[in-house]
Specification:
306 residues, four-stranded antiparallel beta sheet, elongated, seven-stranded mixed beta sheet, alpha+beta
């Protein structure tokens, strides 16, 4: 079966590799254009583009699927299109090209967390279980009928990056199984059922920790925004990046945002019990152990996270 693969970030690469390894004829890859990365803003190809080039697959770079891109997709004559975190909408004209349609691998249990950041929102919300589904792509936002499902337990210390890494590999197996069933005429599409929740792309502001919230909510948010956009707070107006915090319900109470040193642990007060900082990155410096950062503060007892 001839497959067009659409994807952009690193979490989509395992699916591309799995389809090739399973013997599917991946005739072209649709991915977003090179993007500026790093402090020097160097134009860099997407992880999917890099892998496609290594595999010798034709690459269609596009930020938007317009008429020209649609013509290139049609020229590739795919029987089906597989899409994993491409990062753009697929218009009706392109959806109608493959005879088996477009199959989307999405990292949530739809209809929960429709949108660009499902794993991040699941962690922030405190979900105990998440997963991935394959579904038929429609013009609506992640609304199509489901073809396959897998579940994944959320660990108490999982970050969004760690959970996505696991789902990218298990999801690649699910996508391959789904396309095999489609090819064999054995795929059964089931309408989505349950409560709908939305997972829009996170902004930098979503990473700001509100120390007035309970410790559990702060811990969930810090894990949900790691590695991107990252957790942060401010001290005297200066932004400080933080890695996920640890819950310390047994520690003596502190006022929200108050910082204190206790047995070599750096604690911060919240709306409930304190949390422990793990690693801290002050503005213009590298990430460091919280204890090393604390030793550099002349009057740690006067430091307050805002």
């Amino acid at each position: 079966m001839r497959v067009l693969f659409a994807g952009t970030p690193a979490v989509a690469v395992p699916s591309l590799d799995a389809l090739v390894a399973a013997g599917f004829d991946v005739v072209a890859v649709l991915t977003r254009p090179d993007a500026p990365l790093g402090r020097k803003r160097v134009l860099t190809p997407s992880p999917v583009a890099v892998r496609a080039a290594e595999l010798g697959i034709e690459i269609i770079h596009a930020a938007k699927v317009d008429a020209g891109v649609t013509d290139r997709i049609a020229a590739a004559a795919p029987d089906v299109a597989a899409i994993v975190a491409y990062g753009g909408l697929i218009p009706r004209a392109a959806l109608d090209i493959p005879r088996h349609g477009w199959i989307n691998l999405h990292f949530s249990l739809l209809p929960a967390w429709r949108g660009a950041a499902p794993v991040q929102h699941a962690l922030i919300a405190g979900d105990d279980v998440t997963g991935a589904v394959t579904f038929r792509l429609e013009e609506g936002l992640d609304t199509g009928p489901v073809l396959g499902t897998l579940t994944e337990t959320v660990g108490p210390k999982d970050t969004a990056g760690e959970l996505l890494e696991r789902l990218s590999h298990s999801g690649a197996v699910l996508l391959t199984q789904t396309l095999s069933a489609v090819d064999a005429g054995q795929a059964a599409a089931v309408p989505q059922q349950g409560d709908v929740s939305l997972a829009p792309k996170l902004t930098l502001e979503d990473g700001r920790l509100d120390w007035r919230q309970p410790a559990l909510a702060i811990g969930r948010r810090a894990r949900g925004v790691t590695p991107e956009p990252g957790a942060w707070t401010t001290v005297d107006g200066q932004r400080i990046k933080l890695e996920p915090v640890l819950l310390r319900p047994e520690a003596p109470a502190l006022a929200p945002g108050q910082v204190a040193l206790a047995d070599k642990s750096v604690l911060v007060g919240t709306g409930s019990h304190p949390v422990e900082l793990t690693r801290v990155q002050p503005a213009g410096k590298k990430m460091m152990n919280a204890a090393d950062w604390a030793r550099g503060q002349a009057k740690l007892e006067s430091v307050v996270f805002e």
